[in-house]
Each structure stands twice: as C-alpha cells, then as structure tokens.
Amino acid sequence: MAEVTALVMDGEGNAAEVAPGGRGLADLAPAKGFVWVSVDLSSEAGMRWLEAAGLDPLALAALTAGETRPRCTVHGEMVLMNLRGVNLNPGAEPEDMVSLRLCVTDRAIVSARRRLLFALGDVMEGMRAGHAPRTQGELIARIALRLADRAEPVVATLNERLDDLEEAVDGKVSPDVRRELADVRRVASVLRRFMIPQRDAMSTLEIEELIWLSQRDRARLREATERVTRLGEDLDAIRDRAQVVRDQVVDIRAEAMNRQMLVLSVVAAIFLPLGLLTGLLGINVGGIPGAGTPWAFWAVCGILVAILAFEIWLYRRLKLLG
Fold this sequence. Notes:
Shape: rod-shaped
Distance between the termini: 69 Å
Structural class: alpha+beta
Strand order of the largest sheet: 2-1-3-7-6-5-4
CATH class of the largest domain: Alpha Beta
Low-confidence stretches: none
Number of strands: 7
Number of helices: 8
Mean pLDDT: 87
C-alpha cells in the first residue's frame, strides 16, 4: 500500500483512485459521494499530507495518537473511531494488533495506521475490482467485516491448539504442554481485550443520528457488530476451556505430588521402627543384650527382617502400598 492512497467514490458503486499530491482533504472530496484517504503514519510523506490536509485539530490529534483502544466518539457530524486488526505481518505476533484510526465526515473518510493492515488491502482490492461502497457507513462496515474475516482464522487456530492440549492432558503433563497452555491463554486474553471494546464502538456508531448514515448502513454495521460479538464470545469460550485444562493440569500435578509424598511417608514409616531398634542397640551403655554372644548379630538381623515383613503386610492390608 502507498504512503497516501486516495479513492473517490461517486455514490453509485464506482471508485476512482486519484493522486493526492499537495491537495488537502477539501480539494479531494467530490461534490457527490465521498473520498477515502488512507495514510501510513510511519512515513514522512503520510505525516506531511496529514498535517497539511486541513483537518480539525481534534481529528488530527486522534489520528496521530500513540496508543489507541477501540472506541467511537461523535463530534457533531464528525465521527472519530479506533479499530483494531490482527497483525499478520511476517515475523509478527497476531495478538500484537494493528490500530486503525478513522475520521469520518459527510464528505470524506481519513484512515491512519502505523503498520501494514491486510484487511485494508482486501477492501481496496474489492473497490478496484468494481465493488465500491456507496456511503461512508457501508465502507466502515466493510472494513470492520474484513477485520473480523482476518481475525477468524487466528481464533480458529487457538481453538485447534486448545483441542490438542485437551488431548495431551491424559494423566501426565509435560513442561511443553504447560507452556503451550499459557501461550493460548495469553493470546486469547489479549485479543479479547480489544474485541469487546471494538464491538462497543461499532454499536455506538450504529445508534448515532448522523445525516450520512442510512438505515441500510445501520443494518450493515449491525452485521459487523454481530461478527465481532461472535469473535468475542469465541474468545470467552477459549478462555473458559483453557481454565478447565489448567485446572486439570493443576489436579494432575497435585495428584502426582501427593503420590510422591505418600511414598516418602510410607518409606519413613517402614524404617522408623527399624531405626528405633538399631538406635537402642547402638547406645554406649552397659547391659546391651547379646553383647558377648556370637550369633546375636544374626538374631537381631532376623528380628529386623521379621518386623519389615510385618510392616509391609500391614501397609498392604491398609492399602497404603500398591
């Protein structure tokens, strides 16, 4: 995508790409229809155009803000929106979501981003193929739907990873399983943190009374809101399932620890009487029985073996030994 891309919509389903050059937003906006200008904030040319576009200072501050969460704010007939899309750039983590800032008026839409957002490319390709939106509301709904389309495979992958983890937890838990489970929970939490506010932002725009927002646009926005809502519900389900798997992991580890403690306790209980008897016979005082008898050592060994055999029989009867 170019540093600054301008597409003029005639309101009849046709779009024409124009070179923004040094023209401001008022010069690019057509008499009929509207113009969509996509700006790359990471480029100097994009920042220069945005600063010289003649935008409202409030809109300029919102479009160039550092950290943004999904929201929708209405100022008269101008709408400022922040949306988020999964990061599908090479080498990036999907949950490191890309922020898309929108300024919408009755004649123009300005979108700004700092990183490549594939959903915007999908929308532009559709427009260049002859499927241009007729209104600003339709364009916003189309962008939101493409953002959801790009997020769905990521959520589906999380579900598949969780399915594999549920099968892997079958009585033993390896460190790899615990790391994978922690990563799934982290990704689901980060995605949900932005999906829920995004749903609220779309709902806010849908109910606003704006002259450029038709009932058909509201229906499309409602559809986009429902898609985002389903993604949020899927992420909630993933978090709940991950919590169940985590509880299983904790139970398995606790059971393994309890078995180890039981074995140590039984071993200690077996050798406690034997240690007591040998300790008594080892004290350095007079009167130790058998001190002058040659076979006394073997007699003591036999007594110890007999005590050991009795203890093993007793613990087996009490089901303390397998």
